[in-house]
User: What shape does this take?
Amino acid sequence: MKITVVIPTYRRPQDLLRCLSALTQQSRTADEVVVVVRDADAETRAALESFHQDVMLLRTAIVQVPGVVAAMNLGLKMAKGDVIAFTDDDAAPYPDWLERIETWMVSDDRIGGVGGRDWQYKANNQLKEMGERQVVGQLQWFGRVIGGHHLAVGSPQEVDVLKGVNMAFRHSAIASLQFDERMRGTGAQVHFELAFTLALKRAGWKLIFDPAVAVAHYPADRFDEDLRDQFNEIAWANAVHNQTLVLLEHFPPKQRTVFLIWAILVGTRDSPGFVQWFRFLPKEGSLAGEKLFASLRGHWQAWETWQQSK
Assistant: This one.
């Protein structure tokens, strides 16, 4: 098999160089690495010119449209490998990352995608969050998406959702599939991988999550409305819009109705309905209300996008 690694990047040259350095240390070398850079990001382009190595083929692609989806789709278009692996510029794959991905792909030709854990670290190299999750990457029948890929432990499992920082796909499984350009956001476009992986599941491909297929992840600053751990009304509504839109299209009519009722009445911590709002009201006060209204707006915007797409 030939393996292409795609890395979208924007204004994080030092993180990118760390990522590329980690790829040069792979026990199974990448056949090519495609770095997708925004046209206005001169600093990153200069950093790439200074990166000298002869271990792997390094190609640069220039994207003019903002947002990770446009970058991922351009990388997808340029990739020539039988397997296309994606990671972020602020990640550093473990030395056996590509070797483990290839082992899974060779083991079963029904496997369309493979992903693994992203060990999240703070600047001082301490884990950003403690905890363990046995079950990750699952979509429950009523619409709750179980994430927690960064805390996964245990045996490999078949999943519904892989995480963008650590995922790889069989090129023949992808066919003409692209990342959904209707995802909202000017940078991160949260949940962009959800539509992609669920489409592969619907087509009958197996998605494997193996915690041993690992990358170190140093979540870096973003340069858009989504500032990670800070509440932003626009970013919150965008994230809810993206996830809701994907599930509206994925579910059949009855499940779609159940999902909408559950999402509005109950919801989750990251997309609260009225029950979650009441739960967090004593602790968060008015912030809980802001999150609720942003979530409701995201659901409504997703409904409008879905109707227009139909």
Notes: The radius of gyration is 19 Å.
